[in-house]
Write a structure and sequence with these properties.
Two copies of one chain form a homodimer. By secondary structure, the first copy, chain A, is an alpha/beta fold. The first copy, chain A, has two domains: 170 residues, Rossmann fold (3-Layer(aba) Sandwich), CATH 3.40.50.1970; 181 residues, Dehydroquinate synthase-like, alpha domain. Chain A contains 14 helices and eleven strands. In chain A, the strands form three sheets. The first copy, chain A, has a seven-stranded mixed sheet, sandwiched between helices. In chain A, strands 7-8 form a two-stranded antiparallel ribbon. Chain A has a two-stranded antiparallel ribbon with strand order 10-11. The radius of gyration of chain A is 20 Å and the shape is globular.
Chain lengths: 362, 362
């Protein structure tokens, strides 16, 4: 049993991480307020529903429980799906004192959270992330959004959940490729803020790959704790929180260029982090050995280290220039001050990018 | 020159009310932070643009100023228009440190505010309300939203502006019917919280109708002050703020039943307030003379006192049961404890409504 408290004043909430928590959540004192809602709406998808929907339904026995399934995949994280969800809630006469439950990965969590932020100007929601990526990253911190054809997560809100319920055993039904994509975000935490966690990941790589429940619980807790600490200090990304976007400026461009859902988010972030490392190395802040170590780590966890075939550095520009981190007209990148310490940089020029990534052997 | 401060901690902001303020805003110290934005996007409509857009453009001389016009009318306060606006911002490469300016009435303000709440998870915005209704009500307090076919303002957010700039002289170009609709919200403040303001409105009715700048400024200031006080105590409508919905439960049903944009919002609210008064009278909290006085006041300011032809009380139910004030399955109404003092009530039954409004002679 691992616990993390996200400290945000009145919007504080608990994260509880434990094997078989989905079955045992009712025993958790942290969750006691969850069982009093009169109306509960579980938003999930056809992949997750047959596996875990009945467990979650059981938790809310006694309430008026509704379910809404949306198609699986990043390509459905759109304003159209958002509209369908709000129409469903209105048709079912869901009132403002209901609870939404996000049961699924990042798409379900981001979409449900955005619906919770906007439906009748805000109702409460619970995160039950079922992918590694959402357990370590997207379910924590209150960033919610849908994508726009011109940019990922461009329409959204900051909306904190009431609680996050994480059961690492659900990862056993996660496809290997998605587990790997989640590891990209895990590695991200090590790279941006904790070099000793980087070493720990290397040491525990076998146990992680074999999904030892204890090791996974500790790994997820360390990620959630780092994220919670950063979010507590900078909820709406005025500064430090932007460091969590390590690899994301390049990564979002990859996702958008390919069309959302072709590569997994984590895969794009993996390549993005390596590009950030390469750029940092060209500036003298990382050694080429460190870049190689990062590349080795990504490969160890079955992640890509090269951009998609055919994608040139020029293809990144249009997406990077509408990135949410753009400020005063300048692109801003999260780069490395050193391994385990990221920094926000706004003096990267097109010329420099063209030079460093001329032949794209990142 | 009248000023109101909305006290909301870090989200506090000034409301400044003065004749010719649109021309003189640069002289106001309260607005000094507004002139530093690099990108400014004015959202307005084809009715307002020819009248006031160039004045607002002049205020932001030196910035990169964009404009977006959306069609005039409540029927365009939709998720589709919201999507068009966000697409425009992305196409124009508007970054998160830009300023949106809502130049128009309640539709422009609510829509622009909701775009500001969601674009890249939130950017800043300025309210320049150009209708009486938006000057006394919708531009203050941070309620933003779009409508859904199943209910008004069902998709939205709480998003406070940076400032509210109110120039009563712009009301001279407002159609008489819209001025009257705004007076419904003015009368609402008197009815819900200040009986002496009710008397003042009667005494000043001539000066108000003739749009004396000094009298209008004072009237608008008194409304904004009441709203600011309530919002400061209850920003997200956990309690007291719901009193501002006096007349709105019935009123929204009228608007939705007719189709948004057929009646003006204020017209529907006028009838709604009279229905609330009638219901309160049947409960013994108002005298029939007081109901008559309210009816006289509404008529004096050219407002309707009867629901649309053909609308039966049964036609109200479907809309009222999905009202945002519904809590624990119960409809909640804002009724009168006495004239000048509203109260939230949740024990109104269908039977009672059928009885009081059997033949609809409100």
């Amino acid at each position: 049993m691992e616990k993390v408290a996200v400290q945000l004043g009145q919007r504080s909430y608990p994260i509880v991480i434990a094997p078989a928590l989905l079955a045992n959540a009712k025993l958790q004192p942290e969750f006691s307020a969850l069982w009093h809602y009169r109306q509960v709406i579980i938003i999930t998808n056809p992949t997750i529903a047959p596996l875990y929907l009945s467990s979650v339904r059981d938790l809310f026995a006694g309430a008026d429980v509704h379910e809404l399934q949306i198609p699986d995949g990043e390509s459905f994280k759109t304003l159209q799906t958002f509209e369908q969800a709000t129409s469903f809630l209105l048709q079912q006469k869901i009132s403002r004192d209901a609870l939404l439950v996000a049961l699924g990965g990042g798409v379900i969590g981001d979409l449900t959270g955005f619906v919770a932020a906007c439906y009748q100007r805000g109702i409460e929601f619970l995160q039950i992330p079922t992918t590694l990526l959402s357990q370590v990253d997207s379910s924590v911190g209150g960033k919610t959004a849908v994508n726009h054809p011109l940019g990922k997560n461009m329409i959204g809100a900051f909306k904190q959940p009431q609680a996050v319920l994480i059961d690492p055993l659900v990862l056993r039904t996660l496809p290997e490729r998605e587990f790997a994509a989640g590891m990209a975000e895990v590695i991200k935490y090590a790279l941006l803020g904790d070099a000793s966690f980087f070493d720990w990941l290397l040491a525990e790589s076998d146990a992680i790959t074999k999904q030892s429940p204890a090791v996974l619980s500790e790994m997820i807790r360390r990620c959630c704790q780092m994220k919670a600490d950063i979010v507590s200090r900078d909820e709406t990304e005025q500064g430090e929180r932007a460091l969590l976007n390590l690899g994301h400026t390049f990564g979002h461009a990859i996702e958008a260029w390919l069309g959302y859902g072709t590569w997994l988010h984590g895969e794009a972030v993996a390549v993005g982090m390596l590009m950030a490392a390469k750029l940092s190395a060209s500036r003298g802040d990382l050694s080429s050995e460190q870049v190689d170590t990062i590349s080795t780590m990504l490969t160890l966890f079955k992640l890509p280290v090269l951009p998609p075939a055919g994608m040139q550095i020029a293809d990144f520009f249009p997406y990077m220039k509408t990135d949410k981190k753009v400020k005063a007209g300048k692109m801003r990148f999260v780069l490395f001050e050193q391994l385990g310490q990221a920094v926000l940089v706004d003096d990267v020029t097109d010329v420099e990018l063209n030079q460093v990534f001329a032949n794209f052997h990142v």
